[in-house]
Amino acid sequence: MAKIVVEVMLKPEILDPQGNAVASALARLGFSVAKSVRQGKRFEIEVEGEPTASQIAQVEKAAEVLLSNPVIETYVVRVEK
Amino acid sequence: MSLDTVAAAQSSPDTKQPFAELGLKPDEYARIKEILGRRPTSSELAMYSVMWSEHCSYKSSKVHLKQFSEKAPKSAALLVGIGENAGVVDVGQGYAVTFKIESHNHPSFIEPYQGAATGIGGIVRDILTMGARPIAVMDPLRFGPADAPDTRRVLPGIVAGIGGYGNCLGLPNIGGEVVFDQTYAGNPLVNALCVGVMKHSDIKLAKAAGAGNLVVLFGAKTGGDGIGGVSVLASETFDSSRSTKRPSVQVGDPFVEKLLIECSLEIFAEDLVVGIQDLGGAGLSCATSELASGGSGGMKVALDRVPLRDPSLSPEEILMSESQERMCAIVEPHKLPRFLEICKKWDVTVTAIGEVTDGNRLEITWNGELIVNVPPRTVAHEGPVYNRPMAQPAYIDKVNSQKVKLSIPHTATEIKEAVLKLAAAPNLADKSWVTSQYDKYVQGNTIQSHPEDSGMVRIDETTHLGVAISTDANANWSYLNPYQGAKLALAEAARNIATAGARPLAVTNCLNFGSPEDPGVMWQFAETVRGLADGCLAMGLPVTGGNVSFYNQTGTVSILPTPVIGVLGVIQDVRTRTPMSFDTAGLDLFLLGQTYEDLSGSEWAFLHGERTGQAPTADLAREMRLIELLLAGHAAKIFHAAHDLSQGGLSAGLTEMVLRYSVGAIIALENVGVALLSESPGRVVVAIDPKKATNLRELATTHSIKVEKIGTTGGDSLTINDCVIDLDELRHAHISTFPRLFG
Questions:
Q1: Which of B64, B104, B106, B450 is catalytic?
Q2: In chain A, at which end, N or C, are there fewer CB atoms within 10 A of the end residue's CB?
Q3: Is the predicted ipTM greater than 0.85, yes or no?
Q4: pTM, two decimal places
């Protein structure tokens, strides 16, 4: 079964308090790897069979009006097997 | 783009600059050139453009606002007046209180959650900057029609933002307003009030005195938040074609703000700062120029030292950034090590970015190159001042001459229908859906909040000294008569303090209007300020500060003139406060004050789509006698309850009272329709033990206030003459509106 995946991230110029908190927690726990952390959301939308162009278009629309806040967030939509 | 330095500006005087895009008029740009004797650098242009915007410079309102000083009543209570971040009032026992309202209207329409959240953050920092510990917030809100689709986007977002940020800070939200009207559809009003408490000796001011002292920036790092937000979002009307102007929204981080509060209070307690200023609208441009103007005028800042969240920011953007949770302090060099230690303890980023100098110029460098060299007063205080043309709008004579024509209920069925209709009307319905999202009791000092007449918090846990605050506006009356509207809102807010037994002490205001470039709006504004200043003088209440928000309009339609008036009062022992309702049967209900046929601008008229006729005339002498009567009755402990009557008149007042503790009432009224629906100002319903009736009548005589018995408490219904409304039915009407609309 295929999934249409929507990933939502805060726009790069927008402050991300959660990401900052994760970054400082990483450092505190000895994971010195992170220069910075941005945290986002991932939605997996299952469809019957192979997603059609119109289904993907519907998800694109949903991503704009419901799943993301286009004023402060960006999203990408893609199909995963 | 290469760095535009002062040297470059001198050598290339003819470079074209985008002053118009930054919101400056040609003559304002010419004046900047005249002040500097050359063209401004791009950084200077950025500073002047944000600081000379309507939002920061008050250029259209200044000529009117000076009445608040000119007509100021003598008040021994006022410790710090208008002009500082917030006024400070003496409340006795060595305590001082500071309070202020600000608007965050335009950002809250674009991004409701963050707009409202950062509105709370900003006003809390204003209070903190005075040296006070913030102790409570309130939120007067206005939205488009309750059933409009966009209200369903805007209202829940704004309420969640206020709750999210305020609750995280651990500040109780003790009241406010939620009002709906078509004119707010594309321009909701989000006003935020904060109150803080301190000892007299702790007052801090925004000034940078003493050459050699350090300019220290502390709090969050600077990012691209709301760049140009002040001038673009708050000063110009919405126009989608402008969206290319980086409409970057500020995002708040309440946890950083909480750390900043605790860190600042510890710094204050150890007396480590000479002056302090928060970074709000116009960010560093505002903080550096205001601090420098507040002192001798000289300051040097190395802008490249500002810690950045986004390293790609240009100096112009750093100067304009509205990143939240930042403060700027002036610190003596020998106190810096301790200052840094405290910041480290609270995990607050801190950097010395400059120093106070002997001169009178604000000089800002970027990697050693001079990019700003200006007299700071010309940026902060000597901006343009406009005496804008004003004219009474044509609608005034038209609506004032029309009699309001409404159906008045007479029969029991009609009365029941009217009472239920008002109980369920969005403007009068139960607001628990909103207020239950706010933490009302955190800190454990909240004595009363929604749905009481005012919010009240204890400030001393041994003596039980407390303060009460109420915010009020009646935009319908202000529309019909802005002069009277302002006085009436002031009187209502003061009355809402006095019903609880607190003595009104000081006034703050948030004046929300349309475009000042419209002579009709300017007239509404001028009349409002005149009314408020006259009212404050008459009532002996000083204005301690406030905020003006212009350009509130959608397309060409201005909002109703909406002056939100906040009154603060003091109560010696909060345990004695009078609640707004009764919890026992067998009490007598009395109406204090005179009821006239005041249906113009009433909620009943609003529900019938009518906004005509004349606003009532405020009788402030009578309002003051009523307040004295309430305070005398409170002192004599004769009131079980006292509730102010305002929007929705006696009908709404009784509904709120009987539902508060589910104790009904039996009411007898003459001319019942008008008695229930009229909104005559200066009226209060009190519940007293029948044995105290004589005391009440004596007090009423002494204070020349009309008093009449209207009924008794008890039972499971609100009975008005022959009309019986079951409390369950009334409650259902009252509480189901908000869940139905927004649930």
A1: B104
A2: C
A3: no
A4: 0.92
